[in-house]
Amino acid sequence: MEQRERVLIVSVQTTQTDEDFAYANQELAQLVDTAMGEVVATVTQKRESISGRTLVGKGKVEEISHLADELDVDLVVFYQSLTGSMVKNLNETINCRIIDRVQLILDIFAMRARSKEGKLQVQLAQLNYLLPRLSGQREGLSRQGGGIGTRGPGETRLETDRRYIRKQIQDIEEQLEQIKKHRERSREKRKSSNGFQLGLIGYTNAGKSTILNQLTQAGAYQMDQLFATLDPLTRQVDLFPNFEVTLTDTVGFIQELPTTLIHAFESTLEESADVDLLVHVVDASNAQFSLHEKTVTDLVNDLEMQEIPMLTVYNKTDLIAGEFQPNLYPSIQISAVNDADIERLKEFLKEQVKTQMTYYEEWLEVTETKELNQLQQRTLVESLNYDEEKNQYCVKGYRK
Prior knowledge:
Blueprint: E1 5-13, H1 18-34, E2 37-46, H2 58-70, E3 75-78, H3 84-91, E4 97-100, H4 101-112, H5 116-130, H6 134-141, H7 154-157, H8 162-191, E5 196-202, H9 208-216, E6 233-240, E7 243-249, H10 259-264, H11 266-273, E8 277-283, H12 289-302, E9 310-315, E10 331-333, H13 339-355, E11 358-365, H14 369-378, E12 380-387, E13 392-399
C-alpha cells in the first residue's frame, strides 16, 4: 500500500462563523485524504484580516515551522490562496513544501481526469495558476521530489521559463478549441434528435454518479470522495418507451471555488448549459446541506444558467437522524441505494419532464402515415387510438 504523505493544514478565520470555519477545515482535511495524504495536525488563527506577507502572523509561522519539524511533516496546505511572495516568505522559516487549497484541488483534478480534454483542462488550470507564482515556487522546487501538489505538469513545467509556459498554455488552448468544436457538433446532433436532456449538478460527493448509475447502468466511477467525477458522462435513461431522455453527470461544486477551477471543468459544465432541466442533487444527511445548496445555486447564477428549470433530489435520506425539512422545490427525498426510491425518482422525473413540455392532441387521417411517424419519433406520445367512426387516429402527448 502506498505510504500517505504527512500533511499539516493551516487556515485563518476572519468573518466566518465558528461553525462554518470548522466545516471548512473538515472539508480541507477531506480534500487532503482524497489526494492520498494524512492530516497529522491543524493550525488555525483568528484575525481581522490576513497578513499580506505570510497570510498568518509571525508567531504562527514559527509555530507551524516547529510543528512541521516535530511531526516530520511532508507538506503544509493553506486553506486561503497564497501568492508567490507569500510562499517565498513562508519558505524562509518552514522547511517543507507549501501549497494552498486551490493547488490541492487541481492536484485531485489531475488524479481524476480520464479523457484527453479533462487532462488538458487541468494542465491549463495548473499552468495559469502557477505562472504568476513562479518566484515563490522556485524556492520550494529544490526540496520537492513529487507528491501532492505536483501531479500533472507542475513538477517539470516550473523549472522552465515563463515564455515556455505561455507557449504551453497557447498550445493547450488551441487543442481545447478543436475539442470544443467537436463537442458542439455532438451536442447539436443530440439536440436535433428532439429528445429531452437532463443535467446532474450538485455539491461534490452528493451522490450524482450513484444516481446516474442507478438510472442508466452507466458504470460511472462512484466513491465517497470529493471530486470523484471530473469528465462529463452522458447516458440514456429509460423513462419513456419511445422517447429519448439523456442524463449528463458533472463534476461536483465546492464552496469558494476560484475562477481558475471553474474554467478547469468548463467542458463538463457546458454539457449542462444546454440541458432542458437541471437535476440538483443534495446530500440531505450533511449538516451543512443548506450551505451546499447556496454554493450550487450561486454558481449556477455565475455561469448564467439560472434560466434553466431546476428540480432538487435530496439524497442519502437513509443516513438522516430525525426530521428533514427541504429548502428547495420541486423536490423529492430518496436514498440512491434503495431500489424502491429509484423507482419513485423515475416517476418524479417523468412528471417533471412533462411539466417542461407542451401537451397536444391531434387527429390524423389514416393516410397521414408520414405525419404520424414524425409525431412518434419527435414527441412524447402518451396515447395513440384509432376512431372507427371518424376513420382517424387520435394522438395525445407532449412536445418540446
